[in-house]
Each structure stands twice: as structure tokens, then as C-alpha cells.
Structures
1.
Amino acid sequence: MPRASASSKPILTPEPVDAASQIDAKIAALDDWRGATLAKIRNVIHKAVPDVMETVKWRGVPVWEHNGILCTGETYKAAVKMTFAHGAALPDPAGLFNASLDGNTRRAIDVHEGGKINEAALKALIKAAVAFNATKAKR
């Protein structure tokens, strides 16, 4: 319902757009390999954690959360980057992390055009991030 201003003209406020719709729009706008890659990553995340919460932060960056941030899905010209908020604390037996390896907290996976996503290993990494956040939340 529009509010009335002092001059009795309605002030139209835009309806809030939910994060899932914003992410859908971002994927659709990326009409190349990056959109398909981001959609694939999103699908794997939802398979690994069906009750994951999607948010959008930092000027449109998709973020997946479960008791805190699990990872982000940034898109660049040459890569789609999944940055795990606490990646340095996560086991990565498949060696998926290939970027941001110098930090003490975050780790990232850069997927380049034509790159394959190891779905089983990525699911395990996402589940490890959920487990990490659960123990962090209990402190």
C-alpha cells in the first residue's frame, strides 16, 4: 500500500526483490559460460545443503549461508570464483582450492571457461563448511 506524503500524493516504494530472484537475474544476464557455471555451482550447493539460505551482498554478489557465510559466487571476465569464508579451516582432499591460498581464513576455487566441476568433491567441501559453521555457532 503506497504511503501518502505531506502533499497527499502516494509515495511508491518498490517491492523488495528476494535474493533467489536476484541470483536468477544475475545468471540470466550472464549469457555465456559464466552464467552456466554459476548456475551449476548453485545447483551443487542446493543439493549439498537443501536448506541453504541465499543472500546477495556487496553490489550483487550471490552468497550462500548456513549459520554464517559458507561461500560466495563472484563472476569475473576470466573466472567464476567460489570464495569459502573459512576455507583455510576446511579439509580439501580433492584439492579443489586453487586461489586465495595465502590467507589465514578464506580459500577460493576459480572455475575458468571449459573447466569441470567435481560435483562430489564440491558437495563434500560445502558440507564441511556447514559443519564448521555449526561448531562456530555453538561457541
2.
Amino acid sequence: MVRVLAYTSPALGHLEPLLPVLMALRSGGAEVSVRTLPDQLARVRAHGVAARPLDPAVLAVGLEDWRARGQLAALRASVTTFAARAEHDAEDLARAIEEDGPDLLVVDVNSWGALAVAEASGLPYAVLAPYPLALRSQDAPPFGPGLRPAQGFPGRLRDRLLSPVVLGTLERVMLPPLNRTRAARGLTPLHRYDDLLRAAPLVLATTAEPFEYHRRDWPGNVRLVGPCVDLEEATGPPAWLSAIEQPIVLVTTSSEFQQDRRLVEAAVEGLRGTGLHVVATVPAGDAALLAAGPEAHVVGWAPHAPLLRSAVCAVTHGGMGATQRALAHGVPVCAVPFGRDQHEVARRVDVARAGTRLPAHRLTPDRLRAAVQKAIQRRPGATRVAAAFAAAPGAAGAASAVLGLSRAPDRH
């Protein structure tokens, strides 16, 4: 029996697409274990996957990007966090390998130290990337600001000039600590972020065209497997859902704190009197602090699948998981990005004409109402994306690709 060990970063949104893959690996006959968030262990184990908690030292390094001013400063703060975690998640995965004796590894793209350990281990490994890949491409703008794909010579010139500013700045923060971790494992230094992903035997990107930009230069190790979401969650609908007669607008905020509560406040106020019922989930906030009213429900958590079946629009913070889950149901999205990869996700919503994009600095109740109404008219684009997601390999295809590594020639 093949033994697979998975390792996640401390982000619930990164566990969500991984869990269906782990379940598919188990269904395929593999023995599967994962190191992940302590408060998710019972849920993971309920699906038959062995789970242990991440090292508390990894959990102690929190994201502070929401304190930064400006997109580039926020991205730099995120990179600083991942770099600071690298030393701890490297040691954590090294211990896990010693304890579990796996044949294959699956490692979160944001666990940079763990990726170094995976590369140094000599074991076949896959990288799980649950947000748009930051790889350089002739067909995609520099990752981060959420730029529209280049059109003609002016656009290509823009990308050529901005790439050193955007990616170069981030790499100057990222590479020194990561290369120290790599040196301790006997690995050669990285010169660009791309090197981190190109070194992996397999990269699972949990998205698909046309939501992701078409690229002629995808590396050969990248597989677009689709969002890997369960359209029929095992958890039943909340009891209060049956009492809602109006069409639903689902509002989501980040599972990692980033002060995005004003998205809920704007939705509740802006959609009042429109005949739409707001259901907002605030997994990293306090639902009790947010006023709702007769036309809204604000909860800490609720299963999204039953809500989306009655939804005409999803207002998201631009998180990849929430956005793609809505689109997988054919529900158009109004994306309001606050930071991190959210600007890239929101731009893809707009480019795919699967919804609308409203930058957080322009967020008001009136503008959100207009953006939601426009997004609702873009349901055909959302339906087109849903069909593409359904045709993607999904969790089963991702699991098959991972298991295929055990039969592939050793690259190390």
C-alpha cells in the first residue's frame, strides 16, 4: 500500500481543496495522513484520513498583511509571513516524514520550508496550489496587483517593466530566508520564485480555463485539475434556510483574519429593500458584532452548497476557494478583493465575464448594490466556467496524478 503524507499551511482555505484529494487518494487504496490545523482534525479524521496538528510554532506566525498600506506592501507582508514560517514548517515536515515513513508527499504551496524538505527528501512530491500560480508567463501579467492581461505591444511593455518591480521586490524578501532553509538541507539556492515550483515533480493547480488565463508556456509539471470542491456537501442545510423565500446573495469573508467585516456591513445595507436576502459567513470574525435585520442572516459558518443552490449571486472577498465554489455552482460572483491573492482572483472573475470586480477601496453600499446587480446579469459566464470546472480532472484526477509519481522515474 502506498503511504501518502500531506502537509498544509495554517489556512483553512488551503485545506478545503486538499481534503477531497486526500479522500480520493484513500479511495484509490493509499494510506493517507496529513498535518494540518488543530481545529480541523476531527473533521478530517471523520473522512478516514489520519491527521495530526501542525507544530504550534508554525501556527504562531500569523498573517499581518491587513495592517499594511497599499497592495504591494500587503503582498510584501504576506511573503514575510511565509518566509518566517519556513524554518518551522521545514522542521515540522521533517519530523512527520520520520514518524510516518511515507512513499509520497503532497505539500502546500505556501509552506516554503516544507517544500525544501520535500525536495531534499528524495521522495516524489506534489505541490498543491489553491490560488493562481505566480509563475512568470508571456501570457499573464505579473502576479499580485490584479492587472488585466496584456493587449498588444503597450500591454507587453507594461508587463516587462512591472515584472521586476512587483516580482523582484517580493523575491528580495522571500529568497534569503528560504535559501538559508535550503542550504541547511543541502539544496542549491533559488534565484527566482519560479524555481521553487519548477523543481517539483508535480504541481496541482486547483483551477481551470477559462477562469484561469490561457498560457502557452505552462511548465510540464503543472496540472490544472479544477477547484476540487464537493458540490453536494455531506453537512445538511441550516434549519433557518427553509424560512427564506427571497433569492439569496451569499457573502463570504476570509477564513484568515483581514478586517473585511465592512464587506458584510455594505452588503446588508446596500441590498436592503432589493428583494434579495443576504446570508453572510464570517469564519474569522464575530458574527454577533455584525447587525443583520429581517433581510439578512450573519453567521460564523454555514455550508455553502445548499446556500448556493438558492443563490443568484455570491459576494466574495476574492478568496479562491469561495469564489470558485460559487462559480462551480454556476452562480455569478461580485468579488471585492482586500489583499493577498484576492486581486488576481477578482480580476479573473471580471475577465471571464463570470461576475464583477469592485476594489475594496471603492466599497460603499450603493456601489456594491450596483456591482451585484451587474454580476447577476453575467450568469451565462458563470455557467460557462461551471461547465469547464465540471470537465476538469477534479479530485480523482489529482489523486491519480499524485499516485502516478510513485511509478515515475526519480528526478532527484
